[in-house]
Every structure is written in C-alpha cells, then in structure tokens.
Specification:
five-stranded mixed beta sheet, about 350 residues, 3 domains, 7 strands, 13 helices, two-stranded antiparallel ribbon, Nucleotidyltransferase, domain 5, alpha/beta
C-alpha cells in the first residue's frame, strides 16, 4: 500500500467507506471500516492526500487527519456528484470523492478550527432560538385570530395583542394557553439577548469584526458570521470571486455564444449571503427615512430597479468591499461615484 497517493473517504456516523488509489487513479484498496477501526487504519497509512465531502463531521475528521500529517481536502458535495458512477452507494461515493480530488480546478473547503466551529454553533443556536420565537408568536397570533383578535406581525405587537385580550371575553382555557405562549416567548427573548451579548463581547475582542463594523449595513451578528463562515479571503484573486462564492451573482444558462442571465444563483455560503442582503435592505431603509441617498451608485439603482433587486446588487458590492477590507486590513471608505 506504499503507492497510495489519494484516499477518498465517505463519512457516516458509524461506518466509513475508504477508497485508496495511486497516482494513475488505479484503485489500491476499498474498505468498509467501523468508527473504531477507521482512525487506527488511517494511522497505518503513508501521509498523502485525504479527500472528504464537506458535510457533517468532516471538519472534525479534517482536524484529526491533519494532525496525523495528511493533506486534507474537503470538497463541496456538488463537485463530487458528477463523478458518481450510475448506482449511488458508499463505495461509489468514496471512489467519486477520490476522482474529484484529482481534478486540478476544484477549490476545497478550508478546514475550520475548533474556535471557528464554536462561533458557528453560537450563531446557529441564536438563529434557532429566533426561529422558535417567530414560530411561537405566529402560533399565538393564529390561535387568537380565531377569536377575532388580529394584530400585525412581529414581537413589538405582542403588547397590543395582550391589550386586546383584556378588552374581550375569552374562555379561561384560551387565556391560560395564551399566557403559556407569552411566557415561552419571554424566555426565548431572554436567551436570545444573552447570546447577542456574547456575540457583541466577542466582536469587541476581534480586529476583524472592528474593521467590518466600519461598513454600513454590517452589525455585530453579520461581522461574527463573516469571521466564522468566510474562508481565507486571500485565496480569491478579487472581490468578484468572493461575491460569486457567496452566490450573489446571476444564474447563467448560456449557450451558443448567447449569454442568458437569470436570478441570483444562491449557490454559495447562505449564512453570509442572507445577512448581507438584510444589511443592504437596512441601508436602503435608512435612505428612505432620510429622504435622500448620499451614494450616487445606490441612488441610480433605486431609481431604475425594484428595491429587492437593488438590495441584492448592493449586497454584491458589499461582498467585494468586505474582500478589500479584510485583504488590505483597511477600514471602509465610501465608494466613489460611478463604482459598479
């Protein structure tokens, strides 16, 4: 087995499929290993390229195998799929991973450190609680709408709903269950506020977050999300490549030399993309409140395009500016008139 140059691994909870090949791509071994056998088996292999799909547990195993001396490549699943031969099974998946890793044009996903994984957990836990709060509020609004009590969406209108409940006759069971909903919402609000405070405290200790905070539309949550989920931006030659990696570019369906561009591709890092679009919408809302737009480029977009289209275009520009800020370690500067 000394001629093994690439090992492809199809990860799972308990059973791992391992496919090793030589420099010519010829299979050297195919093995199915339990979780206990896997680490011991890899410890007996010569240091070479180890490829895995960037999926659940891949960053953990990337750190473990990297510490053993292997060159770890985490591949986006969308790049592996074309190499699967006919039937999909673990053995074919591992072989496809090996084949994809041999291609020179595929960019691997950077292995996250434990600190980056912790930041990702913090952010996604907060998102989960915000989603639970939204679901509970909508549940309460839906139930009380059946009794003629209707208010607008959002947490700020809960006090109005409570006021309306005091003005009408309701069954005692309805009041008890509504109180249960409100208590759960209040508990979620407390937990969300605690996680937000931890995010803000983390941002105060981060040089990257302080640089990003100089840009309009970037708040504490956006700054730490970029720090946690964005890879080393210096691997991108220019800001446009980073914007494309986030999925903030038009989807292409071109053929025969005729370019056909569609909606936003959404093929990329969704956490950052979502927050950049939200930040762009907040910048646009700020211009509407002021009654003027100090950015000529944005003013032109708002005059010619629907607001959401202008927001996605602004998010694309923000991504390119983030690339410039982090690669040059400089604060935000208002773009000049005419910048695309």
């Amino acid at each position: 087995m000394g001629d093994v140059t690439i090992i492809g691994i199809d990860l799972a909870k308990r059973v791992f499929q391992v496919h090793g090949c030589d420099g010519a791509g010829k299979a050297v071994f195919r093995k199915k290993l339990t979780r206990g056998q896997f680490e011991k088996f890899m410890g007996d292999q010569p240091c070479c390229i180890v490829a895995m799909e960037a999926c659940a547990t891949s960053h953990h195993w990337g750190r473990v195998l990297g510490a053993m001396g292997f060159e770890v490549r985490l591949l986006p699943p969308v790049h592996v799929k074309p190499f699967v031969k006919r039937q999909k099974n673990d053995a074919n998946d591992a072989e496809a991973i090996t084949e994809a890793a041999r291609r020179p044009g595929l960019h691997p996903v950077a292995v996250k450190s434990e600190e980056e994984q912790a930041l990702a957990m913090l952010l996604r836990t907060r998102d989960q609680l915000v989603g639970q709060r939204t679901a509970t509020i909508n549940s309460l609004r839906g139930h009380l709408a059946e009794f003629g009590l209707v208010v607008a969406q959002g947490p700020k209108h809960l006090s109005e709903l409570a006021e309306k409940m005091r003005e009408v006759e309701l069954p005692e069971l309805v009041r008890d269950l509504a109180a249960l909903h409100r208590e759960h919402i209040a508990d979620l609000e407390k937990r969300i506020a605690g996680l937000t405070a931890r995010i803000e405290a983390r941002n105060r200790r981060s040089d990257t977050a302080r640089l990003l905070a100089t840009m309009p539309g970037i708040g504490p949550v956006s700054a730490i999300t970029i720090e946690a989920f964005a890879c080393d931006l210096k691997q991108f030659e220019r800001g446009r490549d980073f914007a494309a990696w986030l999925g903030l570019v038009p989807r292409q369906h071109s053929s025969g030399g005729k370019a056909r561009l569609g909606r936003c591709s959404k093929m990329g890092q969704r956490d950052i993309r979502r927050l950049l679009i939200i930040g762009a919408m907040s910048v646009i809302a700020g211009t509407r409140r002021k009654g003027r737009c100090d950015d000529p480029w944005l003013a032109d977009k708002l005059a010619r395009k629907p607001r959401m289209v202008a927001a996605v275009a602004l998010a694309n520009r923000m991504a390119r500016q983030i690339w410039a800020i982090l690669t040059k370690s400089e604060g935000y500067a208002m773009p000049e008139a005419g910048m695309a």
